[in-house]
Amino acid sequence: MAGSEDQKFSLLEVLNTFKLCLTDNKEVYIEHYVAGWRGLVKFLNSLGSVFGFISKDAATKIQILINYLNGENGSHYVTAQSMVKYELENELVDITKRGSHPESGCRTLLRLHRALRWLELFLERLRTSTEDSKTSVMCADAYNESLAQHHPWVVRKAAGMAFCMLPGRPAFFEVMNVGSPEQVVAVLGEALPLISEVYQITEALYAQHNLLDLP
Ligand code: 1PW
């Protein structure tokens, strides 16, 4: 029982992690960013195996960043800002085409960053949805507005099929494990500005260094 409880996702957990994401001078802690993502992966896994291909990619990217953080140059990977500086100064990033650094921290975090925008749009739709709203439609709309433009046709197709398998709004709220629908809406209202701020800061960092299209 205890084991299955460990696996159980709660949106509150993710909210708390994103709360820890920013340093006093508004840099993004990679440790907490990936911890937030870990919570999201748990959530995806609890939605069923059709989300396996999605959660697996996110889990792989989380692990790449954790390996940098725990590696010998880990001190440069404390924040996204220090990572960008370090990898650019040491020419550890493939800028225009894939080459000798196919798994740079910068391009790996960029993938999670783009997906975070999807999540933000989707959760915002959920928050303002009504009882008869369809999660699959909200999820697909959010995806088409954001992440889809970075994915090839085959991934878009597979994602579209996975969205159709999403549970309906009541079941979806239950999986979030937060409480009544009213409580879910309240927690979303609290979580979204935090996620949005982390997103905006990361976006500005990547824009400033011209890194938004890393291969
Ligand atoms: C229900 C709430 C969902 C929020 C979680 C969002 C997870 C987003 C992961 C999408 C992954 C789709 C399949 C993988 C695609 C990769 O090719 C792609 N990865 C991402 C995260 O977009 C690009 O990575 P790549 O191939 O350049 O290493």
Automatic annotation (TrEMBL):
GO terms for biological process: negative regulation of interleukin-1 beta production. Gene3D superfamilies: Glycolipid transfer protein. It catalyses: N-(hexadecanoyl)-sphing-4-enine-1-phosphate(in) = N-(hexadecanoyl)-sphing-4-enine-1-phosphate(out); N-(9Z-octadecenoyl)-sphing-4-enine-1-phosphate(in) = N-(9Z-octadecenoyl)-sphing-4-enine-1-phosphate(out). One of its GO terms (molecular function) is ceramide 1-phosphate transfer activity. One of its GO terms (cellular component) is plasma membrane. It comes from the Eukaryota. Transmembrane segments: none annotated. InterPro entries: GLTP_sf (IPR036497), Glycolipid_transfer_prot_dom (IPR014830). It is a peripheral membrane protein. Keywords: Cell membrane, Cytoplasm, Endosome, Golgi apparatus, Lipid transport, Lipid-binding, Membrane, Nucleus, Transport. Residues 29-177 form the Glycolipid transfer protein domain. Pfam families: GLTP (PF08718). It is found in: Cell membrane; Cytoplasm, Cytosol; Endosome membrane; Golgi apparatus, trans-Golgi network membrane. Its main location: membrane. SUPFAM superfamilies: Glycolipid transfer protein, GLTP. Belongs to the GLTP family. This is Ceramide-1-phosphate transfer protein. The lineage of its organism: Eukaryota, Metazoa, Chordata, Craniata, Vertebrata.
